[in-house]
Amino acid sequence: MIIKNICCIGAGYVGGPTMSVLAQKNPHIKVTVVDINQERIAAWNDTDLSNLPIYEPGLKEVVQEARGRNLFFSTEVKKAIDEAEMIFISVNTPTKTYGKGKGMAADLKYIELCARQIAKVAKSDKIVVEKSTLPVRTAQAIKDILDYTGNGVTFQILSNPEFLAEGTAVQDLLNPDRVLIGGEESEEGKEAMEALVAIYESWIPRERILTTNVWSSELSKLVANAFLAQRVSSINAISELCEVTGANVGEVSRAIGMDSRIGPKFLKASVGFGGSCFQKDILNLVYIAKSYGLNEVADYWEQVIIMNDYQKRRFADKIVSTLYNTVSGKKITFLGWAFKKDTNDTRESAAIYVADALLNEQAEITVYDPKVSESRIYEDLDYLGTRSPEENRRLLKVVNDPYQACKDAHAIAILTEWDEFITYDWGKIYEAVIKPAFVFDGRKILDAEMMETIGFDYTSIGVSKTQSNK
Ligand SMILES: NC(=O)c1ccc[n+]([C@@H]2O[C@H](COP(=O)([O-])OP(=O)(O)OC[C@H]3O[C@@H](n4cnc5c(N)ncnc54)[C@H](O)[C@@H]3O)[C@@H](O)[C@H]2O)c1
């Protein structure tokens, strides 16, 4: 099957960048990304490329090349479905906030709505590609919905989970470690898989494109995220042990990471992982394990989340205890709100939970983040429902200048590892803050010796105070 028209439902952090690169590398295929969010589509179509709804290094350039040539962003969902031979579903699959599986299972209502819409609109055979991260066996549910519409159209369902990491999305898409495609083992299934392989082969070597059965593909995505998050929680667990024993977690990471069986990546201790995926996907894995009665398996993976929540709480507690057990009325400056550097995504960011804990202690927080908007920060806090929106706005301020943010602060907390924080004139900041000048580095990006020479009382994760003061 030769694909000439692709539709992608969902113009978010995955759909937007993924389809931009796919279109850039396949100029012969018309790619239409559709979304029900008009504002988002308008931003994708903005002539000023700095207004794209998603910030990712290198994305502007890709969009500039392909948009209007063979890449289109639109709200006309039905039309795009009708025209396409291949439809990617890239909508959000958040954790359920109601009913059975609340707080654990993935909410598949958006996926089901897409399947029903495809079933209603399709007049010709289609390949439907699951790009969203889904519980294992979701393809069966999608197939059921599509097959029982009775309009004679046949559908092939493929699973093609996305492994990009925000902040490096374009690089990851251009040069992925692997592309995973799961499909039915029938002739039709194999044909559909080959059609998708051909699209990726435009820029990715064939040996990096894996084909598996659908269930392996669906499950592999959840497992990949669980393993990555597990490494973060593992090193974070060790960070506390370092603090009490005088070991240094940076040195421990280096020492164990040089073992080729362990490897050096994802071994950096921090205030905890965030992002829209890790927590949601592990909870989903836990829920699936429980639903099959695999309680030990579920408990094992749940511990990764428990450790992560503890690490965020521990960071906030450390600030309070160091500031003489009270932060009431004290100005605490947050450098960073995004869940990691080089993205404006704040979903599940550690900063939100640390801020919430400190606001409960009546701290007055000032936030500076190079890419996150003021409205986003307030939405994140309001969403928790811990206090009224008015109170959140009274207690937390957002500023556009890091030096202004730090002025008269009782403490500075680094919540995101933005490179620019390293380059600040910390001597100048020291002059402007209240003494003792406390800095809590939740990302371990500053040089302890430099900070202490300037005069800061510098606390970093996984290093005991006595050790860093040596
Ligand atoms: N963000 C990541 O880094 C990442 C990485 C890999 C996989 N994933 C997975 O990809 C999926 C999408 O994630 P995201 O971060 O892009 O989410 P997102 O919230 O940024 O985007 C989803 C978009 O889908 C749109 N949408 C929802 N229902 C729709 C419908 N019926 N018709 C049209 N549009 C609809 C929403 O308006 C939204 O713009 C999730 O399953 C996620 O787990 C995300």
Automatic annotation (TrEMBL):
Q: Which pathway does the database say it acts in? A: Nucleotide-sugar biosynthesis; UDP-alpha-D-glucuronate biosynthesis; UDP-alpha-D-glucuronate from UDP-alpha-D-glucose: step 1/1
In its keyword annotation, does this UniProt entry include Oxidoreductase? yes
What does it catalyze?
A: UDP-alpha-D-glucose + 2 NAD(+) + H2O = UDP-alpha-D-glucuronate + 2 NADH + 3 H(+)
User: What EC number(s) does its UniProt record assign?
Assistant: 1.1.1.22
The active site is formed by: 277 (nucleophile)
Top-rank taxon: Bacteria
GO MF, one term, reads: UDP-glucose 6-dehydrogenase activity
**Which parts form a coiled-coil structure per UniProt?**
none
**PANTHER family the record matches:** UDP-GLUCOSE 6-DEHYDROGENASE, UDP-GLUCOSE DEHYDROGENASE/UDP-MANNAC DEHYDROGENASE
The free-text function statement in the UniProt record for this protein reads: Catalyzes the conversion of UDP-glucose into UDP-glucuronate, one of the precursors of teichuronic acid.
* Family to which this protein belongs: Belongs to the UDP-glucose/GDP-mannose dehydrogenase family.
Q: What is this protein called?
A: UDP-glucose 6-dehydrogenase
**Organism the protein comes from:** Bizionia myxarmorum
